[in-house]
Input
Amino acid sequence: MSTVFKSERPTFPKMLELHGLTLGRRVATTLQVNVGKRCNQACHHCHVDAGPLRTEIMDEKTIMRVITLMDRSREIRTLDITGGAPELNPHFRTLVRAGRERGLHVIDRCNLTVLSEPEQEETAAFLAGAEVHIIASLPCYSKENVERQRGKGVFEPSIQALRALNALGYGHDPLLPLDLVYNPVGPTLPPEAHTLEQRYKAELGEHYGIAFNQLLVMTNLPISRFLHLLLREGRYETYLELLVQSFNPATVPHLMCQDTISVGWDGRLFDCDFNQMLEDPMAGEPTLWNLESLDTLAGRRIRTGSHCFGCTAGHGSSCGGSLA
Output
């Protein structure tokens, strides 16, 4: 799985070349839409740099353009809505309804605590009624670790939200999947997903009566807040070396950048959510406004960087969890 390099550290394209691998953009099946950076939390690991003071938000005109291009793209099957806290966008429900009316699998990436914010009291019921798949961040089953990463006072509202979602059928009804997301607290690779999932289910079930479907295990990528933390602590080079030495070629065929289009709050397009946060647009710098169909993006070169080693380390990491 890993390779030891005693000379100069290879770039990501060079690593692919060494293993006889290539990356190529296929016709997209997933449209991941970041509807804004506004959030009710400011988590230490957040690669979006989201928070309560952020003002960037996708407007109604851009939301409607997303819907237009969904109609013109023949292979889109999944609408993955993210943020920030996507529920805080005033047009969030318009986008959800549009996706469901078109028969798409709609995902809401929810931080859980937003469900107890003012004017969000009916959001959980709305999501259940629309049969939206919820993927919720809960970096640990212990209060101490959750609040170390996400801030004090976050754990109890998260547990309350999970209980409320369970009461609506989430985690029980096959039409209402509820997945949780784990990120390591520090600069380490996440453990194997299945074993950790069993521990999560045992701890959350026994202590809080909470049920969920899957645990998605994700690696912290060295960008945005987590990068700043690594640099501040003098641990960036060590962490990047860990990612490089843990490169797993079996993850490459499953990297999400090959069949996912990431849409920024302002309508710019990116190969992945992480490139979006690095302000590194898709080759040719397309936007929602200069395309007639998302299908025309197939075949474009995928832009990569050192952060891509985070997606290919160990068991791999993507917005859908492990890759290999």
